[in-house]
Amino acid sequence: MTNDALPMNLQTVRLDILQRLEPIRSLSDVRLCELAALCTTETVGRGLDPFRVQGVQGQSVYLLSGELKLTYVDRSSFVLVGGSEGSHWPLGKHTQPLRDAKAITDIELIRVDDEMLDVIMTWDQLSAGVDPSANGPAATDWRLMSGAFRLQSLMDGSLSRLPSASIDELFKRFERIKVKKGAAILREGDAGDFYYIIENGRCEVTRKVGGVDMPLAELKAGDAFGEEALVVEGKRNATVCMQTSGVLLRLKKSDFIELLREPLLKRLSWRDAAQQVTAGAVWLDVRYPSEYRNDRLPGAVNVPLSEIRNAIGLLDRDREYIAYCQSGRRSSAAAFLLSQRGYRACCLEGGLKANPVADRC
Which region is the signal sequence (predicted)? Predict the structure, then answer.
């Protein structure tokens, strides 16, 4: 059998395994449980190189059991035994780069994505330093929050692009509120005042169409809402009601602008935007289809602002998008929505109105 077809048995990681590994063991119990559910162990047969097909780049790899011979770039070698003190640390992280490896016996490994681990450790360490009593009687230990700050949200949800420098202030300024089933959190037409993240519970988003409330979406723990009116400083364009009782985290408009909108929202001049498009970025027209048909930029893709959330997952995450509209208001909201969900997105400063056709040449 060749090393290009390694026999592997994947199994879910037990919590007690993570509690032995460095520096993972320093995480809170809630985070360890989350991480355990997202990791798997793999078994590799004797005589094989476990890293021939999938290396250790971008990962923290630990030897759980068995004996593994490691050879480094200077051709020195070392036999690591699973369960020993040295096996509690990721392979090749604090030594010379690995040249190759060979399983002396059947071995068991665990791989943890470095990016995921860095995100979770950043939030966990910062939240550990926050005094819950500082935010009033309704406050809690942020490390125990399994909804709004669950790992999936931190990796690709509403908080995934937040600069780490802002996290500490964010914890201080969020207000935690309990809400009852049926409560209207936002009403269509009202002014924007707060940004919300669902800690637990479910919400329904509706909009009036011809005098009838039409359901648009159902939101769950970890989802965010209320940002559009705060980005464009306009009126609420939908109503959000609680389908169940639950707990919400809310952030005042001024805090949202300082800690979320400004760090995430990138604006480009016409000249810089055009250069980015020449380099491979895509124009994203977020106006109504009728506006797009009448006056669009060459090569632009039309995704109206009202459909941006539905386009999450459909747009290419490997491309950069430069959103534009008539004035810059709708495009700034679209760029923010995409940015906070992990896309590389900017908006054209001032929109088409501030960049007449003659100036675009």
Answer: none
CATH 3.30.457.10 fits 3-115, yes or no: no
Say whether pTM exceeds 0.85.
no
Range 340-353 average pLDDT: 89
pLDDT digits (tens, 9 = 90+) for 115-162: 888 888 877 776 665 554 444 444 445 555 556 667 766 776 656 666
- What single string gives the DSSP state of each residue in 73-109? TTS-EEEEETTSGGGGS-TTSSSSPEEEEEESS-EEE
Lowest mean pLDDT among 166-175, 281-290, 333-342: 166-175
Residues known to be catalytic: 325
3 state DSSP class of 34: helix
H helix or E strand, kind and range, residue 124: helix 114-128
> How would CATH label the architecture of 265-360?
3-Layer(aba) Sandwich (3.40)
H-helix segments, 190-305: 227-232, 253-256, 262-264, 270-278, 289-294
Q: What is the CATH number of domain 131-261?
A: 2.60.120.10
Helix (H) or strand (E) holding 247: strand 246-252
Q: Are 335 and 345 in contact (CB under 8 A)?
A: yes
Is the pLDDT at 301 greater than 70? The verdict is yes
Q: How many CB atoms lie within 10 A of CB 46?
A: 12
pLDDT digits (tens, 9 = 90+) for 216-242: 889 998 888 998 888 888 899 899 999
What string of H, E and C letters represents the secondary structure of 292-354? HHHCCCCCCEECCHHHHHHHCCCCCCCCEEEEECCCCHHHHHHHHHHHCCCCEEEEECCCCCC
